[in-house]
Write a structure and sequence with these properties.
By secondary structure, chain A is mostly helical. Chain A has ten helices and no strands. In chain B, strands 1, 2, 3, 4, 5, 6, 7, 8, 9 and 10 form a ten-stranded mixed β-sheet that branches. The chains are: A mainly alpha, B alpha+beta.
């Protein structure tokens, strides 16, 4: 790992406390072609973009396509972004538009192309993701899947690593920032109810 | 820390294990920087029938997707059809001749531009795609990336 570029230092400086200034600096260095700075941006926002795609119930392949298209569009706009502090919002908005377009394309193909459709995996994770979890978390995961769409979508984006800001979540889901806190509270309440019905309460964790 | 924050942390840790960002997705994202071309003029997307308001352009059963890109020198119109999991392109170029280079999924396909400005490419993989042409004055013009 013999990085010698300025990006490594920047990546280290910004690793734990992602502030706006750091994102701006990384973006400027990436626009000059600095790979390590670009890698640091990928590291910071890949989780958010993946979570947005999954929040829209995209398959592995479609989610990968949405995330990669979003990164390619950012490369295309490097040096043209007027307000680098808004990068996370730009990424989230771009990813949301790509998700909606992907969903339209899937709708277009479904009725006309049976052959393709049958050979494609069903939307959503191909394996039951909860198999990778312990009993309690698996129950939570299944309860999450059964929540109304608005709740499942919001919680899945909030589950991104590192935790997204409410401004990023607002851009990702086209919500008002002020509505995210109350909606989160209501949706977590519903999740507790459902998980509790399954006999695996989470109240005792409080 | 509130009970909600704690539950959120539990959920985040679960997502990290059950549905992490795939390694391939991360590798492709890092490699995306190499697609940067500072010398090329960008032809911006000006129309995409899949993004146009539902019902205004595409009627049910109409399978061709239309995209338009414009730069100062060149315009590119793409007609996109999907069949058998592959993509077919029919493109109309104004302001450039010779050949069109189509980039998709790490592949490059070069196609001649006919006298009327048309080119065709079939059997392309799906994914983020762009088309590069050379304008009459020698400037390289590249369309924005569009996921086909």
């Amino acid at each position: 790992m013999a990085y010698r570029s300025e990006g490594l230092l920047l990546a280290r400086l910004s690793g734990s406390s992602g502030g706006d200034v750091d994102t701006t600096t990384l973006l400027e260095a990436a626009a000059r072609g600095d790979q390590a700075s670009w890698d640091a941006l990928v590291e910071r926002y890949a989780g958010l973009l993946w979570s947005i795609a999954r929040a829209h119930r995209l398959s592995d392949a479609d989610a990968a396509d949405v995330v990669q298209t979003t990164w390619l569009k950012l490369v295309e706009h490097l040096g043209r972004i007027k307000d680098p502090e808004r990068l996370p919002g730009w990424l989230a908005t771009t990813a949301r538009h790509e998700c909606l377009r992907q969903i339209r394309r899937t709708d277009r193909e479904r009725p006309t192309d049976d052959q393709v459709w049958q050979s494609e995996p069903a939307p959503g994770p191909a394996v039951d993701a909860s198999l990778l979890l312990g009993e309690r978390d698996a129950a939570l995961w299944r309860a999450l899947e059964k929540l109304p769409d608005q709740c499942r979508r919001l919680l899945r984006v909030l589950m991104a690593t590192p935790p997204p800001s409410y401004a990023e979540v607002a851009a990702a889901l086209d919500m008002r920032i002020g509505s995210i806190g109350p909606t989160r509270q209501r949706c977590l309440g519903r999740l507790r109810e459902r998980a509790g019905q399954a006999g695996l309460g989470t109240e005792d964790r409080a | 820390m509130t009970a909600d924050d704690e539950l959120m942390d539990v959920l985040r840790a679960a997502a990290d294990r059950a549905d992490p960002v795939p390694d391939l997705v991360l590798r492709q994202a890092r490699a995306a920087l190499t697609t940067r071309d500072l010398d090329a003029e960008l032809a911006d997307l000006t129309f995409d029938s899949d993004l146009a308001e539902a019902g205004t352009v595409r009627a049910d059963g109409e399978d061709v997707r239309l995209l338009s890109f414009e730069s100062a020198r060149v315009s590119v119109e793409l007609q996109v059809e999907y069949a058998g999991g592959r993509v077919s392109l029919r493109g109309l170029i104004t302001g450039a001749t010779s050949e069109a280079v189509i980039e998709v999924a790490g592949e490059r396909h070069t196609r001649p531009i006919g006298e009327e400005g048309w080119f065709t490419a079939t059997g392309l993989p799906r994914g983020a795609t762009r088309v590069t042409v050379t304008a009459a004055d020698g400037t390289t013009v590249t369309t924005g990336w569009a996921s086909l």
